[in-house]
Structures are given as structure tokens and as C-alpha cells.
TrEMBL record, chain A:
Localization terms from the record: Cell inner membrane; Cell membrane
Positions of the ABC transmembrane type-1 domain: 229-445
Gene Ontology BP term (one): phosphate ion transport
Keywords recorded for this protein, A-Z: Cell inner membrane, Cell membrane, Membrane, Phosphate transport, Transmembrane, Transmembrane helix, Transport
GO molecular function annotations of the record: phosphate transmembrane transporter activity
Family named by the database record: Belongs to the binding-protein-dependent transport system permease family. CysTW subfamily.
Pfam family, one: DUF3708
Biological role: Part of the binding-protein-dependent transport system for phosphate; probably responsible for the translocation of the substrate across the membrane.
Main location: membrane
InterPro entries xref list: MetI-like, MetI-like_sf, Phosphate_PstC, PstC_N
Entry protein name: Phosphate transport system permease protein
Database matches in PANTHER family: PHOSPHATE TRANSPORT SYSTEM PERMEASE, PHOSPHATE TRANSPORT SYSTEM PERMEASE PROTEIN
Annotated SUPFAM superfamilies: MetI-like
UniProtKB/TrEMBL annotation, chain B:
Protein source organism: Thalassolituus maritimus
Any one Gene Ontology cellular component term annotated for this protein: membrane
Any GO BP annotation: phosphate ion transmembrane transport
Highest taxon of the lineage: Bacteria
Protein name stated in the entry: Phosphate ABC transporter ATP-binding protein, PhoT family
Length: 457, 267
């Protein structure tokens, strides 16, 4: 029995168990029993106990079956392979799997007998699986059906199970984050075994090409990431230089000056900017803005690279404007109207009120918004990949081409890679740095925003 | 409780040589009319209490007196309000000096998130009332003294104003209003968020302030109206029903609606 059949069986069991449980409760109630909970609770309880245990068993089965099968197969492998290195064993096993999936190859290899054993094993596993799942389903129905008695507290039990299910769902999100962090950390540690952290964090030359084969000509690679950090910083700074003032002023206009009609039109229009895919911003930056800047630069006699930090930063700034403005708009709106009234009541004008009362009151929230925007800018990839170039120049000149941490991660991992070369592992080290920086920024931003919330709510 | 057609205010709403005169004031929020043809004079150095059930328009009327309703887009005011004989709704009038002359204290204490000193100095600074730091210090001290707060805060002028107790915050807001040297002070239920002891202090303060200022106070507490005011105006569903000396309103009201309200039959 394959997995989709089993899942359909589970769904049918879910519906059937619900009606069975509910009807049993109803008929008990009909006999004059005073049931603790409503019939629907007994139905839900039966459905949960019927489907959850087999579902869990199924998930475990999916995870464990290949391991057990491989362990059994290994014992069937010829003595010579079994005693050889682990890599040999793995290679042989993957050959066995290939042969098993293609019956015409069965007779052609010395591993044919093992493959036949694998086919046999898989068939038996499928039958066993079907049998186990079906019996657990039936067991669940039977046990719960018997348990349905007037004093069974079905309502409370259903609530507890629901709570556990919800907790499991949120745990998946948290555990995934942790898993990603651990895997990045693990690969980064491998990288730091090959390249010292000091060189990585403080070296000023980035040239990650390494010789893949012994006879290949090429450098041995140099992993000083400072030019990447500097490039990221430069582009983010340019972006924030655009996004913060424009976004903030747009937010002030929308929340303090605009009539409600204008706000209804302008706010969604501004948020459309946030909906544009970054790759579209990317070619806008590469094909329109960068040549435009170069044209201006040349007309005043400046030497502008065709892929400049300025172009990427400008476009990224425009992309972040709605981010800053929409978050700031929220915090400015959260400033109590009574403060504005107090200021107007003293004869202050709108701009005096905004400057001296509203903005200072909203400042922590605005700082939080800006920091979230910064972490967005640091993590942005597509625009820089298309518009800022790949040259790891250590420069503060915005007209030069620079590269960023994210762009280098992309280039390091695009194409055929060897997963134990420092070139590939460097991507994980860069990813780790990026992760830590954005995590720290988000953490600080959230703290600031929270502190602000406490003040007024 | 229905709207009385063409009600003419009973009692004595008008008086000679008043500081503020409202004439046929109507207020609309969009289509909805909130105030119907209110005419009322407010005399120099008197405290007038505006009372009435919730939604009767007393706060709306108060906010007309320094054009605070201008900050609400859909609000429209017709009629005339004369301050020392000049119509404050004249298009040539600038609300900035008007609001400095007719100051306002709000229902909920609303100190700015600044220091006590800066809260008081805010108004004088935006109006350029102090030419030097010493001047400003003097204004701050004098305003706090008049609001009866000086002794409590003189050692922590640079602590945040939001750290004071509710009653102190409200006195801070009164001091802030006094600091711009107004002639009229409007108070919109200034004690509704305060405990009885803080309320007593504010009431005492209102009585002292009467010497120098003209005060209009909206209140839900009839005892408070009786304690602090010389005249009382009773509003009902947007109409000004009766204006009389406070003693008279609370002992022998002329209009049956006023009597019904003060004897607690509704509101």
C-alpha cells in the first residue's frame, strides 16, 4: 500500500470516526444518560484518536524506513565492500537502489541478488505498513468507541489535544529556524577549520577561487571578507540615506497632513512599491539607473563604473521606502491625539507639533522601523547582484562597483560545486555573519518597539 | 428627550461688556448638526460651568471658543464668536495667537513626553515670549507657582512630565496653558480622570485663577459646577436650554429640563 492510498484511508477514517463517536454519544443520550459533553465533542475525540496515532506512525515510518532498509541491505553486500570504507558502502547501496528501480539491469550486475532482496524488502514493508496503519486506525476507533461513556470528559480532552497540536505547529517553525542556524553553523565551522576566522573577518582581499584539482592552475584562494562587509555597508548606507528621509516624510504627510481621502489612495499606492519583485527593481537598477548615473557622471567628467554602488543603493532605497513609511505611519498614528490637541491648544502650528511633540513621542518606534529596514537592506540580494557588480573592491567611492555579502553567497553557490572546498564553505560563513547581524538588528529593533508600546497602551 | 423646536434660551445668557460672545453658533459634523443656534456671553473674570448629559454638545461648544474644531476635517461652524469684539471665525484671524489668548486644558492630563521644564517652556518658546534663558526660567517658575505645583517639582524640573501623578500632571497642563499668558482658559472636564483629593486641589486652583483669567469649564459633576462656577449653562441635545447664576440653577431652575437633569432624572 503506498502513501497516498494510506492518506486517503486516514481521511475516510477521520470522517467515519467522527460520525461513529457522535452517534454513539447521541444514542447514549437518547437512552436517558446524562452525557458530560456535547455529541460533537465525542465525535471530535474519536476522530482525533483514530487519525493522529496512525499519522504519527506514518511520519516515523517515512523517516525510518530507508535507514532500516539500508542497514539490512548492507548485511547482504559482499564481504569486500562491507569491510571497505564507508564511502564504498554508500556507493554500493546507491547502485543497488538504481538496479532495483530498473528490472532490466537486474541480471547484469554482481549486485543483482542484493537488488532483488531490496525489491522483496520494499514489497514486504509496504504490506506491513498498510497492515500496521489499518490496525492502528481500527484500534483507535474501537478503544475510543468503548470509552464513550456518560462520564468521559470529551470536551476537556479534545481541548488538550488541540492545544498539543497547535504547540507542535509552532514548534515546527521554531525548530526549522534552529535547524537552519545549526546547519549554517556546522558548515561555517568546517570553513573556519580551513581558513582562520581572523583572516576571514579582518582580511582585505576577497578572491575565493581555489584550485579544484591538483593540476589546475589558479590561486589558492583568499578569504578576507572586509571588502564584502564594506560593500554591504556602503550600499545599505546609500539606501538608508534615501529611504529614511523620504519614507519618514511620506509617513508624516500621510498621518498628519493628508485628508482621509488622500490617505486612502496614497497608502495602498505606496505599498504597491513593496509588492514589486526585487528582480524587477534589479533590472530597473542595472538597465536604467546605472547607465543614467554613468551618463551624468561622464558629463561632469567623473569616472563612473557601469555597475555602481550608487545605482544599486538608490534603487534599494526606493524599494525600502514603503517599509519605512508604513511602519513609521503606524507608530505616528499610535501617538495619542491628546498630545496633538495639547500642542494645538497652546497655539502651535502643525509642523511645530509634528517636530516637537509627535516625532519625539514616536521616536523609539521610528528607530525600530529604521532598524528593521536596515536589516532588510543588508539582506537584499537581487538588486545588488544585478546592479552593483561582483568586483570585491575595498572602496568608499559610491561610483565604483562593489559587491556585497549576499551577492557573494549567490556566486559562490551557483554552478557545480564541491562541498568540501573552502570556496563553497565560505558561503556558509558569510551566511552566518549575515544571520547574526540581521538577528541582532531585529532583536534590538523589536526591543525598542516593545518599549515604546508599553509607554502608550 | 426630543429636540425642542426653536428653543429660546431661558435665563440670562447675554450680558453687557462680556469677554467672549457667541452668537447663533451652529456646529455640523458632516451632515449631522451637533449645536443649534447657541448664543452665550462669558464675562471677564468669571467661571462659567457648562453642564448637560453626554452628547449634549457642551464640549463641542467649548472647542469652538478657540477653534480647536478646526483640527477635525468634517467639522463646520457657523455663527459668530467675538473675543473682545472681534470675530474669531473671521478668515483673517490666525489661530496661532488666538489659541495663545484662549488656552485649553483637556479631559485627560496630556503632558508632552518631555521634562517638566520643557513642558512649560514649550508654549513660550514657540510664541517667542522669552528673550533669554533667564526670562524663560522666570516664566516657568511663575507658571508653576500659579498652578500650585512649584513646591512639588522645583527640585526635579528636568525629570519627565509623564512621571508625575495624575493630579500633578493636570496641574502641569494648567501651568503649561498659563505660561503663554492667556486671557481665557477653557477646561474640558479637567477632573474626570482624577481622584477626589487631586480634584479638590484643581478646584481650589480654578477659584484662584479667576482673579486673572476668564474660565469656561465643562463638567459632568454637578457638585463641581456648584463649587467652582458663578454662572451655569445647561445644554441639552445641542441646544442651550438655560443660563443663570449657579445658585439659581441648582436651587430654582427655570426650565423643566434643567430641573430634570439636576434632580437626577436623567443624564
Amino acid at each position: 500500500m503506498n502513501y497516498s492510498t494510506l492518506l486517503i484511508a486516514l481521511l475516510i477514517a477521520l470522517g467515519a470516526a467522527y460520525f461513529l463517536g457522535r452517534n454513539r454519544a447521541r444514542s447514549l443520550a437518547g437512552q436517558g444518560e446524562s452525557m458530560h459533553s456535547l455529541p460533537t465533542h465525542y465525535g471530535a475525540l474519536t476522530a482525533l484518536w483514530t487519525t493522529l496515532p496512525p499519522l504519527l506512525i506514518l511520519i516515523m515510518w517515512v523517516m525510518l524506513e530507508p535507514r532500516i532498509v539500508d542497514a539490512l541491505l548492507t548485511m547482504q553486500l559482499p564481504e569486500a565492500i562491507r569491510t571497505a570504507s564507508e564511502a564504498e558502502v554508500r556507493l554500493a547501496l546507491s547502485k543497488v537502489h538504481n538496479i532495483a528501480s530498473d528490472p532490466t539491469m537486474m541480471g547484469q550486475s554482481d549486485l543483482g541478488s542484493v537488488a532483488a532482496h531490496l525489491v522483496d524488502l520494499e514489497q514486504r514493508a509496504a504490506i506491513l505498513k498498510g497492515g500496521v496503519i489499518l490496525s492502528v486506525i481500527l484500534l483507535g476507533v474501537a478503544v475510543t468507541w468503548r470509552r464513550i461513556q456518560p462520564d468521559l470528559r470529551a470536551r476537556g480532552e479534545v481541548e488538550r489535544i488541540v492545544r498539543i497540536m497547535l504547540f507542535a505547529s509552532s514548534a515546527i517553525a521554531v525548530l526549522t529556524t534552529l535547524g537552519i542556524l545549526v546547519s549554517v553553523l556546522f558548515e561555517a565551522v568546517l570553513f573556519f577549520q580551513k581558513v582562520s576566522p581572523i583572516e576571514f573577518l579582518f582580511g582585505t582581499t576577497w578572491s575565493p577561487q581555489v584550485a579544484l584539482r591538483a593540476d589546475q592552475s589558479g590561486s589558492s584562494g583568499s578569504f578576507g571578507a572586509v571588502p564584502l562587509f564594506a560593500g554591504t555597508l556602503l550600499i545599505s548606507a546609500i539606501a538608508m540615506f534615501i529611504a529614511v528621509p523620504v519614507g519618514l516624510m511620506a509617513a508624516i504627510y500621510l498621518s498628519e497632513y493628508a485628508t482621509s481621502r488622500v490617505r486612502q489612495l496614497a497608502k495602498p499606492a505606496l505599498e504597491v512599491l513593496a509588492g514589486i519583485p526585487t528582480v524587477v527593481y534589479g533590472f530597473f537598477a542595472a538597465l536604467t539607473v546605472a547607465p543614467f548615473i554613468r551618463g551624468i557622471g561622464e558629463s561632469v567628467g567623473l569616472d563612473v563604473s557601469s555597475e555602481s554602488a550608487l545605482a544599486a543603493g538608490l534603487v534599494m532605497g526606493i524599494m525600502i521606502i514603503p517599509f519605512v513609511s508604513s511602519l513609521s505611519d503606524d507608530v505616528i498614528n499610535a501617538v495619542p491625539q491628546s498630545l496633538r490637541d495639547g500642542s494645538y491648544g497652546l497655539g502651535a502650528t502643525r509642523s511645530e507639533t509634528v517636530r516637537q511633540v509627535v516625532i519625539p513621542a514616536a521616536l523609539p518606534g521610528i528607530v525600530g522601523a529604521v532598524m528593521l529596514a536596515v536589516s532588510r537592506a543588508i539582506g537584499e540580494t537581487m538588486i545588488v547582484a544585478m546592479a552593483a557588480g561582483l568586483a570585491a573592491n575595498l572602496t568608499a567611492n559610491p561610483l565604483d562597483s562593489v559587491t556585497t555579502v549576499t551577492v557573494q553567497i549567490v556566486t559562490l553557490l551557483v554552478g557545480d560545486q564541491e562541498f568540501d572546498s573552502p570556496k563553497t564553505l565560505a558561503a556558509f560563513a558569510l551566511g552566518l555573519v549575515l544571520f547574526i547581524v540581521t538577528l541582532a538588528l531585529n532583536f534590538v529593533a523589536i526591543k525598542i518597539v516593545q518599549k515604546y508600546r508599553e509607554q502608550y497602551d | 428627550m426630543s429636540i425642542i423646536e426653536n428653543h429660546k434660551t431661558v435665563g440670562s445668557p447675554l450680558s453687557e461688556g462680556a469677554k467672549l460672545r457667541a452668537r447663533d453658533v451652529c456646529v455640523f459634523y458632516g451632515e449631522k448638526q451637533a449645536i443649534y443656534n447657541v448664543s452665550l456671553d462669558i464675562r471677564q473674570n468669571e467661571v462659567i460651568a457648562l453642564i448637560g448629559p453626554s452628547g449634549c454638545g457642551k464640549s463641542t461648544f467649548l472647542r469652538c471658543l478657540n477653534r480647536m474644531n478646526d483640527t477635525i476635517d468634517i467639522c463646520n461652524v457657523t455663527g459668530e464668536i467675538l473675543l473682545d469684539g472681534d470675530n474669531i471665525y473671521d478668515p483673517r484671524v490666525d489661530v496661532v495667537p488666538l489659541r495663545a489668548t484662549v488656552g485649553m486644558v483637556f479631559q485627560k492630563p496630556n503632558p508632552f513626553p518631555k521634562s517638566i521644564y520643557d513642558n512649560i517652556a514649550y508654549g513660550p518658546r514657540i510664541h517667542g515670549l522669552a528673550s533669554s534663558r533667564v526670562d524663560l526660567d522666570e516664566i516657568v517658575e511663575k507658571s508653576l507657582q500659579r498652578a500650585g505645583l512649584w513646591n512639588e517639582v522645583k527640585d526635579r524640573l528636568h525629570a519627565p512630565g509623564t512621571g508625575l501623578s495624575g493630579g500633578q500632571q493636570q496641574r502641569l497642563c494648567i501651568a503649561r496653558t498659563i505660561a503663554v499668558d492667556p486671557e481665557v482658559i477653557l477646561m474640558d472636564e479637567p477632573c474626570s480622570a482624577l481622584d477626589p483629593i487631586a480634584t479638590a486641589k484643581i478646584e481650589e486652583l480654578i477659584d484662584e485663577l479667576r482673579e486673572n483669567y476668564t474660565i469656561a469649564i465643562v463638567t459632568h459633576s454637578m457638585q463641581q459646577a456648584a463649587r467652582v462656577s458663578q454662572r451655569t449653562a445647561y445644554f441639552h441635545l445641542g441646544q442651550l436650554i438655560e443660563v443663570n447664576a449657579t445658585d439659581k440653577v441648582f436651587t430654582t431652575p427655570e426650565h423643566q429640563l434643567t430641573e430634570a437633569y439636576i434632580t437626577g432624572r436623567f443624564g
